[in-house]
Each structure stands twice: as C-alpha cells, then as structure tokens.
C-alpha cells in the first residue's frame, strides 16, 4: 500500500489505520488497526497535514444496515461493515436451486429469511439449525455463501468459542455461525434462547471490563448429529431445524458458481415480495417453521428428562430398599431440577400419566416423600397430596416403554 493510500482516523482520543489485509482467496479484507502519532511522524514529513485531514469521530457505534449504509453515524464511527457486493439485475439459477435444496418444502420461507437478513438486519429471526448425518449436503457451503455476502459482519465460532465468557469478537456480528455444533448442555440452550431474543448483551474481552452492546445477531447452527446436538425443550419456539438431504452431485467449483450470482440474488431479494408477514417477535410463527427434524430433537430431549427422572427414582428405591415410591408433580419437578433440568409441572404430569401410565390418587393423602439434601444425601419427609405410586415390579415396564418410544 502506498502512503498516499493510507487512511487514518481518530475515534475519541485514539488513532487507527484502515488497511486491506490480503487473503488466500485473492479478496482483500478491510480492517482497522490501532496506530499512534509517533509512527505517523516517522512516516510523513508533512505529518501535520495528515493529522489535519484525518477523519474524526466521537466514539464507536454498531448500526446494521445494507441499503442505506453510513460509516459516519451522527458523529460516531460505525463498526458494522458495508457489504462489498452491489445488487445487479439478472438470473441466479444456481443459488435459487441451492436455496431450494436447503429449505425444501419451506423454500418460500427460506427466501423470506434471507430477504429479511438483507433488508431488515435488525429484525430478530429464529435460530436456524441445519442438520444431517449424511455427507455432501451443502450445510457448510450455505455458511460460506453467507460469509461471501456479509463478509466481516459474519463470524464462524467453535463450540468452545461460544461457551467462553470472552465474546467481544462475535457479540456484535450479524451472523454467528457454528459448524459441527455440539452444545448439549442445558446452559448452552439457555444461552442461545437468551441471545435469540435479546436486545442487548454484555460484551467481554480479556483484561477489560464488561460493557453492554446492542445485540442483533442471528445464530445459525450446523451439525452432523440429527438428534442431540443441543437440548430443545418441548415448548420451545425459537428454533428452525431442517434436515438437509445429500446433493445430487459433487462439484468442486460449486461455491465459486454461487458467489458469481450473489449480485443477482441480492437484486432478487430486494424486489421480491415477502410470502409472510410479521406474526411474532421472531417474524415467523412456530407453525411456519415447524419440521419433523425439530420434533425429533425435542423428542430426544424429552427422553433425556424421562430417563433422568427414572434413574433418580430407581436410585432412591434401591438405596432405601423400597418396594414402592410415591411422589407428586412438585416432588418430581424438584428431583429433575437437582439434575439441571428445568421443566414445568405439566411436562412432569405428561411423563407420569401419558408415558408411564401411572394413576394419580383422586384425593390428597398422606405419603412419605424422598428428596436429596444439599450434601446429596437422601432424606424422607411426611407429606400430603395427590400422589402417584410406583411399585418395584413396575420399573422394568416403565424402562421398556421409554426405550420403545
């Protein structure tokens, strides 16, 4: 880069230099690096002129916009990057065919998702999950296509990146993608749930205090695990899980062909009429984004809850040598919460009555309840309520039913 091309800016009291970082793809990546006045003095005999012509900003902001982008936003430097591709009229048959491959019978809703991403980047959208146990499905290609469109406004995270407390490198991005995702802890799903509807979030970097930022990120997860890449509760409506089929043929230049059609895709999205209207805070209704793949993941999560409750009850009965075990919905809920499962009483009732086929006593009666204390020891307490009774000889039947379901 020639010195005449150097661009320096001052944000607050700090100096920065805008540079173009070369990449293997041949496309430069524009970035901003910290600079100082002494270095400018060394590089320029007329450094006072350089400083005089330097753009000045009061501070940083992050305003996502693609159609009417502004770098200087009311005197603040907009960290959100303009996309490098301009819409152009024309056909984009390869991209549209690929989008149909990804979204299948939800093709129009998939186009709506991409259109909203481009025209309304601040709009909350569901957590898109692309899953398949098969190879050569195009899941990663889809992420790479979005990266080619949105550049530095999209980031690829690993599972450990997402779980880390240090999030300043991704918390202000438009798209947060995790390939080969395995976030099967309950705290992982809670974090994603909170992010998907959050207006603001705490950003944290090493050696710096946490600070609040506006959050507008869209989370996209890809996994080869179709059943338990993460825990999704029965009542959860934030997830859009699609099972992606295998591509008909392998084309090593397929991504390059898609990238060539990006200007035409953006033009198409810009002039296309949305097939849906805003019906929820995440635009789509749960019914519109429902899929059998989502039900499969939810069913696996249900089985985990059932299995945990079963194993806990069995452990108590064996340790106390009980022939029968009595519990109410509330007691079952407490046993599950001890193991990290937050479920509703109606969820517990469904397990006990619909799955395990237990009968609840019609009237409140006295019974002995067993729970764990803070040290993990089992204690008993006399309670009164409409309880369920599990006999020792019923355990095999219950286990067999869970495995069958």
Rounded to an integer in angstroms, the radius of gyration calculated over CA atoms is 27 Å
Mean of residue pLDDT values: 87
- Looking across the biggest beta sheet, what order are the strands in? 9-10-13-8-14
Shape: elongated
Parts with pLDDT < 50 across at least 5 consecutive residues: none
Number of domains: 3
- The top-level CATH class of the largest domain is Alpha Beta
CATH architecture of the largest domain, please?
3-Layer(aba) Sandwich
**CATH homology superfamily of the largest domain:** P-loop containing nucleotide triphosphate hydrolases
Portion in strands: 15-25%
The end-to-end span amounts to 64 Å
Number of helices: 13
Q: Structural class, from helix and strand content?
A: alpha/beta
Helix content: 25-40%
Please give the largest β-sheet: 5 strands, parallel
**CATH-derived topology of the largest domain:** Rossmann fold
In short:
Helices cover 35% and strands 21% of the residues. By secondary structure, it is an alpha/beta fold.
Description:
With 405 residues, the chain is α/β, with parallel strands linked by helices. It folds into three domains: 3-57, no CATH class; 93-290, P-loop containing nucleotide triphosphate hydrolases (Rossmann fold, 3-Layer(aba) Sandwich); 297-404, no CATH class. The protein is 35% helix and 21% strand. It is built from 13 helices and 18 strands. The strands form six sheets. A five-stranded parallel beta sheet has the order 9-10-13-8-14, sandwiched between helices. A four-stranded mixed beta sheet has the order 3-2-1-4. The chain has a three-stranded mixed beta sheet with strand order 5-7-6, with no helix packed on it. Helix 3 packs across helix 4, helix 10 runs antiparallel to helix 13 and helix 11 (329-338) packs across helix 12 (345-355). The radius of gyration is 27 Å and the shape is elongated. The protein starts with 6 loop residues before the first strand and ends with a helix. The model has no long low-confidence stretch (mean pLDDT 87).
């Amino acid at each position: 880069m020639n010195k005449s091309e150097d661009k320096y800016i001052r944000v607050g009291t700090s100096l920065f230099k805008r540079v173009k970082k070369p990449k293997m793809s041949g496309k430069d990546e524009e970035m901003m690096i910290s600079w100082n006045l002494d270095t400018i003095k060394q590089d320029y005999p007329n450094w006072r002129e350089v400083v005089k012509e330097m753009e000045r900003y009061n501070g940083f902001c992050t305003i996502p916009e693609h159609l009417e982008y502004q770098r200087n936003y009311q005197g603040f430097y907009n960290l959100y990057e303009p996309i490098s591709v301009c819409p152009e009229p024309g056909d984009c048959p390869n991209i549209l065919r690929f989008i149909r491959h990804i979204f299948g019978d939800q093709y129009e809703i998939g186009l709506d998702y991409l259109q909203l991403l481009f025209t309304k980047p601040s709009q909350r959208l569901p957590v898109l999950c692309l899953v398949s146990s098969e190879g050569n499905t195009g899941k990663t290609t889809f992420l790479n296509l979005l990266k080619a469109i949105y550049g530095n406004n999209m980031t690829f995270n690993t599972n450990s990146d997402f779980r880390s407390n240090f999030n300043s490198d991704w918390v202000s991005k438009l798209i947060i993608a995790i390939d080969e995702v395995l976030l099967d802890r309950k705290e992982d799903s809670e974090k994603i749930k909170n992010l998907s509807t959050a207006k603001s979030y705490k950003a944290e970097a090493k050696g710096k205090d946490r600070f609040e930022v506006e959050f507008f990120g869209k989370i996209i997860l890809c996994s080869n695990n179709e059943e338990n890449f993460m825990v999704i509760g029965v009542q959860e409506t934030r997830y859009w899980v699609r099972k992606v089929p295998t591509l008909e043929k392998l084309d090593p230049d397929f991504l390059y062909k898609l990238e060539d059609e990006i200007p035409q895709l953006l033009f198409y999205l810009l002039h296309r009429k949305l097939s849906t209207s805003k019906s929820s805070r995440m635009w789509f209704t749960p019914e519109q984004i429902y899929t059998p793949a989502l039900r499969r993941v939810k069913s696996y999560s249900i089985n985990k809850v059932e299995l945990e409750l079963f194993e806990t009850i069995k452990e108590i009965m064996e340790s106390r040598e009980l022939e029968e075990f009595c519990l109410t919905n509330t007691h079952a809920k407490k046993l599950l919460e001890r193991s990290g499962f937050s479920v509703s009483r109606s969820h517990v009732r469904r397990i006990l009555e619909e799955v395990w086929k237990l009968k609840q006593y019609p009237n409140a009666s006295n019974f002995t309840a067993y729970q764990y204390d803070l040290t993990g020891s089992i204690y008993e307490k006399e309670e009164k309520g409409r309880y369920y009774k599990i006999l020792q000889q019923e355990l095999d039947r219950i286990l067999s039913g869970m495995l069958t379901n």
